[in-house]
Amino acid sequence: MTKYLILSSLLFSIGVCGVISRRNILIILMSLELMLNAVNLSLVTFSRYRLDLQGQIFFLMILGVAAAEVAVGLSILIALFRTKKSVDTIDASILKE
Amino acid sequence: MEILAVLILACPLAGFLINGLLGRYCRNYFVSIIACSAPFASFILSIVTPYTSAKIFEWITVGGVSFDLAIKIDSITQVMLLVITGVGFIIHIYSIGYMKGDPGYWRYFAYLNLFIFLMLLLVMADNLLVMFIGWEGVGLCSYLLIGFWYKDILRADAAKKAFIVNRVGDFFFIIGMMILFSWSGSLNISDINIQTSSSLTPLVCIFLFIGACGKSAQFPLYVWLPDAMAGPTPVSALIHAATMVTAGVYMVARLLPLYMNFLGVLEIIAVIGAFSALFTSILAIGENNIKRILAYSTISQLGFMFCGVAAGSIKAGFFHLSTHAFFKALLFLTAGIVIHALDGEEDIRKMGGLRKRLPLAFWAFLIGALSLSGIPPFSGFFSKEEIIHSTYHIFTRFMSPAFGYLITGILLLTTFFTSVYIFRLIAITFFGIPGTQKLHRTDFSMNFAVIVLSILSIFGWILVNRWDIPSQYPQFLLFEYDIAYSPVHTLPSLVALAIFASLAGLVVVFLSFGPLRKKISELLTTKIGGFFNKIVTNKFYVDEIYEYLFVLPLNMIAFVLWYIIDQVIIDTVLINSSSALLYLLSGKARKIQTGLVNLAVAIVALGVVFIIALIFLLKHA
Asked: Residue B305: CB partners within 8 Å, gap ≥ 6?
């Protein structure tokens, strides 16, 4: 079981690094998806090793939520693009002091 | 019959309200009619009202104790009522002429009526609390009237000084009242007068007497009265000669049954009265302002009155109070005629030879002066004799003989000095080479008032002498000899001594302005003579002493409190710097808001890690 969990945490950290350090918002969204799926992997792992089906059912819920979230996130991105004409986070940094 | 008593109070109050509220819109004619009819009505009512007491309404009720607005008229009160309303009425008439043309005419008469009302309340009070209303109230009116021409800063300062010194006395009065109340549970005069119990009662008596000192300008609280001459002359005549300053004498007389239990307190009163009398009569010799000389004279004569009352002889004290009201008001009003005629000049060195130019003023002033120095057959002689006889007989008999001789001796010496200063005043003002400036015309009302008062100063003693003291006042001292002025019980040698003292003063003045003039001026230039001259002319530096003892420290404390504590510490250090500090810190903290999205996300991630680590550590710690 440990191997799957290590894989899951690795994927999660790669996702976190992506969210923090990438400048393109699309890439950030993709990294966000990666984080979600890493968590999904750990859920399924636990389900397999505890012989409990609840984990896999929860995974399906998360999947649905992720889909909806991507829809919303992409619409926000499009709205941002319409004002800023760019998908770079630097151009979205207007909440300065 | 109680309605009459209430009406006595109501008339001047109504006069004050009408003049105060509507006076500024009326012509002077109406203002003076309303203002003068009020004391006149009260005067008539005072004559016809029998002895009575009335409760106007229940004023304060707290915790089972109640104070009423109650008034009582007995013979002591009636003397005061007649003096206040009678002399007050005459002075109102005088003021019509004196204040003519003044823009604050209505305000002046409103204040005068208010003063009469409050003074009447004081003398008619049945308990100490109501008396205190009148007490404070006349102090207030004194302030308002002294500072009547308030635009002059010196006059306003004099008014402030009067009120503040008065307040010092009032402070002790209040404390005395409080202690008295805590012991006897009531402030009614009749209840207080049967108190003898605790050991603190003499202290209470002394405190109340200090209050009387503040009001009646005895040493050491007399410093306000000479400066109070900054007010209009009729005000000086009414308030600072005839009425307000006698409130202290009245209060001691009212509470005399209480004071009689403590001969030591009476001795103190007599000593302070006698000392004030002597001291201020010496000061009056060195003064050059006509009103200030009369002011010192008032303090001096009040000392006489206190000695009379301290000897247990209310009759002597009040006899002198009445005659003093007559002749002192006369002196002041005549001085007012002189000042008015010379267009505001008050320095006697700038006057001279007014005998021929203002004959009425000269003769009136002479009558007043003869009455003041106690020369027979003028009124002042009889009342002064009464006081000197009572101090001599009573003090030598009931306290120690030495004390009696001391007080009587001081009073006789004061009589001598009284003659000196008043005849010196007459000599400088009315004799000598007349000046040539044009004299202001004197109004008829002023002359009329002066003539009436002159008649009273000569014959007034006949009116006053037929008066009895209520029976609840201790008669045992009076029992020993009949104070009524009859040759059987008076000491001819004492009478002769007093007359000698008065005439000696006259002779001394005559000599020093006549034959011995050169010798006197030589005497003043010698070292000792010059030294005494300097001290007396500078009022023994009492004002300066007070300045250094009290005024300067108070000013310094006030400065410290205002500048250092309020402005520097509270304002700058505490408030302004804390806000500046906050501003600085928030300015620095503001820079965290970069707006960079990536940074925000990184901080979120870091926070999550931090919380997980915290939970991990807490679980295993």
From this structure: B246, B249, B273, B317, B318, B320, B321, B324, B387
